[in-house]
Every structure is written in C-alpha cells, then in structure tokens.
Design brief:
The chain is an all-beta fold. Among the domains are: 124 residues, Macroglobulin (MG2) domain (Immunoglobulin-like, Sandwich), CATH 2.60.40; 101 residues, Immunoglobulin-like (Sandwich); 118 residues, Immunoglobulin-like (Sandwich). The protein has no helices and 36 strands. A hairpin with a 2-residue loop joins strand 14 and strand 15. The protein is globular and about 85 Å long. The relative contact order is 0.16.
C-alpha cells in the first residue's frame, strides 16, 4: 500500500512513500558485548558470594597493588582448620545502554553490574592457616574485594588493587606515523572507566574500555613540527581530571609519553581505519528490521551479493518465492528528517524506487541495484509485487570520502578556507555525527542527518608551513534529544575500534584520516 508522504521539517522527496513501522523493537537497556578479540575473560566462574560471618579475620595479599598478571600471594590465619576455602573476587561487567527502535537508536550511557567470581580454592591446615600464590587477575582496574569462604560463610576479607599501565609504540617517526596507545587497568565505575588523551596539551579524544575489561586501545597519528611532543593521558569522564591524587580514586594516575617527530615526509595518503569485524549481538538491522509491509506478511525471500558498501555500490539481488512472471518493484527503505529543534514528528520512514524487474516462470529473480546516494547506516532493500512487500533484506551503507580528493584544496596558506566532503553519515545517535581533530586537537563535529548523509565540513588551514593532519572519529550524539547520564557525548571516541556501542548492532564506524600542506 502506498500512502502520501508528509512533510518532515521542511524536507520532501519526489517519488517516495512512507513505510509504516512496527511497534518498539526492544526495551531500552544494556547491550550484550560482542566477542572482542583479545579481551580478557572473567577471572573465574560466577558464584554466590556467601554470607558474612559475625566476625572476620583479615587476609593478606602480597603485593596488594600491582598490574594484572603480577605473581601475588594470598594468605590467611585463624580460620577453621582442615577446611576447603573458596577465594572469591569482586568484579563487574560494563555494558553500553541503548534504546534500539525501528526508526533510530538512542544512546543512553553505560551501566555496571557487580558480582562475585571464584578466584581459586585451597585448604587450611591444622592451625587454620593457608597460603596460595597466583597471577593477579586480568580484570578491570581499581579495588577488588577478596573473601575466604568456608561452608558458604565469609570468614576472612582482603583486597587487591589492579594498577594502571600504559604503553606506546612506536616512539618516533615522521609526521603521520600511526601511534598505538594501550592503557590497561581502567575501572568498572564511571569515574575510573575512561581517560582523556592530550597531545601537546590539546584534547584529542576519549578512551574507554567497557567491553574490553579495562584495556583501552587508541590509534592516533604523529603531528606537529620536528622535535619532541608530549602525549598525556588523564583519568576523566570526557576531559581530563587534573588533580587525581586529591580525588576519591587517587590510584587513577596519569600517564605521559614522549613522541619524537623525525621529519616531514609530505602528506600521508587518505585512509579509512575500520573498527574490528565482530559478530553483532543484536539484530544488526535494528533501525529497519521491524518494518512490516502494509498489505501483509512477506511471501518470498531475498539475498544480496554483499550486505554492506558505500553509496553507489553495485549489488546483485537474488530472490525466490515470488509470484511467477509478475513485475517486481525494488524500493530502498530509509528515513527523512532532522533532530534539530525537534518537536512532534521529527523524522519518518521513506521508500525510494531503485529499480524494476520481472520474476521468472519459477518465481525467482536475479537482478542488480545501485545503492542510493543518501544516509549511511542500516537500510533495507524491499521487493514489492502489486501492493505487497514480498521480501526484505538489510544493507549497511558505510562512510566514505566523496571523491578521491575530498579536500577542496590540498595546498593552502595559513588562514585559508577549505572544505572536506564526506558521504554516508547516518541518522541515529550512534552515527549521525563525526568528530574532527586538527593536528590531534579537537575542533568540533559535523552532522549528516539533515543533508541525507552528505557532509561538507568547513575548515581553516592553520600552522607553520608543512604537513598538517585531519583525523575524524566516531562520536556519540547527545545534544538533541537530551538524555541524562550519557557520558562521553560529543567528543572523539579514540577507542572506537573495540569499544563503541554500535559494534553490537553491526555499525561499522571508522576513523577517517586526511592531510593538507600549508605553504608560506
């Protein structure tokens, strides 16, 4: 059934039709983490923590502060003699929180769930003493309670603090050298769970480790003139907390590195650095999977030769179970609208015709389509016969540069205006915006919703003659609509490759890297 499109925030499209969405896709809440390569497993199986004894003795851990993996001895005395002892460890899982609906995905923050795992078992001797040595667990950083549990009762308590540790590689190279920073020991609580990265005292972005159990990895590029440059990481929720030793979490200390730029070897080529390719834990077509045909349930099936690609990609469509020898209209399902000054109906589903064909005598179809130049993110290719949508299959539109040279001018004078042209930005709070760093200093962001994924960033060249870098990172949009408890909003997410909520829904949000040359 085709119905008339209504105007949404002053935008209308010719030859399009609204698609009626289903009811809410899922209850807002924590999203299960995908399997992130290299992320540590739980330190042990989840167990009942036991009941506290009326009085407890104290466990001794030596050392009691160290980085994960350090050999550590736990000992106790004055416990029931000749008994099996379960040593338990307090920990947590941290998950991103989303509201995934048929028409969008909203970012609602993060949540930590605390629980207890079994670290080891041992036995007390005839005097009620024990001693056991093990490696400090690879887990979230910060304080962890350790209990000795005998017959379901907590008879002794100790603790261990997993300290922070950071590495950087390499330590020198020309402008544009990729730098990998790995920071371990981030905690599960909000104020221990992230760090701000500053490059020469300029904020570059945020690192988080929610789904990687305290280990954050960032990839930046070396910028600035020949010489030494300071990379400084501060505990934070967005920007750096500069007096951590006086805070409630004094162990969340800062880290400093020196990178030496050896030379200016000219502009590095444009690159797109994609995140990890992980299996989604939610339906990857969240924003469109719940769309139903108006005339009834689908009767056929369809598949695509590829399930993701840039705008204008050529894709093969194969279908079966169609009405034989009957015309097939192919539509592209998307949305239209805006989040700016949003009241009432702010965006709505649309379909755009992308081709026609005829099913064969056996009800099959083999044809091609071209991905429209429009919004990025999850869409659907719909096959319609008569007034019935007979099949639907998802397709993810990736971000891309608008051309081989997306920068209007590659060689510029200090103070000269230029633009960067991108395609494929989306409409959800996960993918409608992109953060922009200039020489590792955060400038601001661009949005592609109102312009159907087409994003032209206005820039000004600054700095001494030579190569200057522009690095664009995923951003969690929290400006409008406004939600409480949404940390990390509106800033570059430097750990996008392994810890970003969209990974659980199949969103492939990369870092996009360009460079210009400033001349006298």
């Amino acid at each position: 059934m085709t119905i008339t499109i209504k105007r949404v925030v002053g935008i209308a499209f010719a030859a399009t039709a609204l698609v009626v969405p289903a009811s809410a896709f899922a209850t807002p809440g924590p999203v299960q983490a995908p399997a992130i390569p290299g992320a540590s497993a739980l330190p042990g199986p989840v167990v009942d923590p036991g009941k506290p004894a009326a009085t407890m003795t104290t466990l001794t851990t030596t050392p009691d502060i160290a980085v994960a993996g350090t050999p550590t001895t736990i000992s106790g005395a004055g416990l029931p003699p000749n008994k099996e002892v379960s040593l338990t460890w307090s920990t947590a899982t941290v998950n991103w929180v989303l509201d995934a609906r048929p028409d969008s995905v909203d970012y609602l923050g993060r949540t930590a769930t605390k629980f207890t795992v079994l670290l080891a078992t041992t036995h007390t001797d005839a005097t009620g003493a024990f001693k056991i040595t093990m490696a400090a667990p690879h887990d979230f950083g910060g304080l962890h309670d350790i209990y000795a549990v005998v017959d379901g009762v907590q008879v002794a308590k100790g603790g261990f603090l997993i300290a922070r540790h950071a590495t950087m590689t390499p330590k020198k190279g020309p402008i544009g050298t990729p730098i990998t920073i790995t920071y371990s020991g981030l905690g599960s609580s909000l104020y221990e769970g992230s760090v701000a990265l500053n490059y020469d005292n300029k904020f570059a972005g945020q690192l988080t480790a929610n789904w990687t159990r305290g280990v954050a990895v960032a990839h930046i590029r070396a910028s600035g003139p020949v010489g030494k440059h300071v990379i400084y990481l501060d505990d934070s929720v967005t920007f750096g907390y500069m007096n951590i030793p006086q805070s409630p979490n004094p162990w969340a200390v800062s880290k400093k590195f020196i990178f030496t730029v050896t030379k200016d070897a000219g502009r590095p080529k444009a690159e797109i650095d994609w995140p990890l390719n992980v299996a989604p834990t939610m339906a990857p077509t969240t924003t469109l999977a719940a769309i139903k045909s108006v005339a009834g349930a689908t009767t056929g099936s369809a598949s695509l030769s590829v399930t993701s690609g840039q705008i204008l990609s050529k894709v093969d469509v194969t279908a079966s179970g169609l009405t034989p020898n009957a015309p097939v209209a192919m539509n592209w399902a998307s949305v239209v609208g805006s989040r700016v000054n949003c009241t009432g109906t702010c965006w709505a589903f649309t379909t755009t015709p992308i081709g026609t064909a005829t099913a064969s005598a056996d009800g099959t179809l083999n044809t091609k389509i071209t991905v429209p130049d429009g919004l990025g993110g999850w869409h659907a290719v719909q096959l319609v016969q008569g007034t019935t949508t007979v099949a639907q299959v998802p397709f993810y539109v990736k971000r891309s540069f608008a051309s081989a040279q997306p920068i209007s001018d590659l060689t510029l004078h200090d103070g000269q205006h230029f633009t960067i042209h991108l395609k494929g930005l989306g409409w959800t709070q996960l993918d409608n915006t992109i953060a922009v760093d200039y020489d590792n200093a955060y400038m601001g962001y661009g949005c592609g919703f109102n312009s159907q994924g087409d994003t032209v960033l206005d820039m000004v060249a600054t700095g001494a003659p030579g190569t200057h870098l522009i690095d664009m990172y995923p951003l969690l949009y929290t400006q409008q609509p406004s939600y409480a408890n949404t940390p990390y909003g509106m800033i570059p997410m430097l750990s996008y490759a392994s810890d970003l909520p969209g990974l659980a829904l199949g969103y492939q949000l990369p870092a996009m890297r360009l460079a210009i040359t400033v001349v006298k």
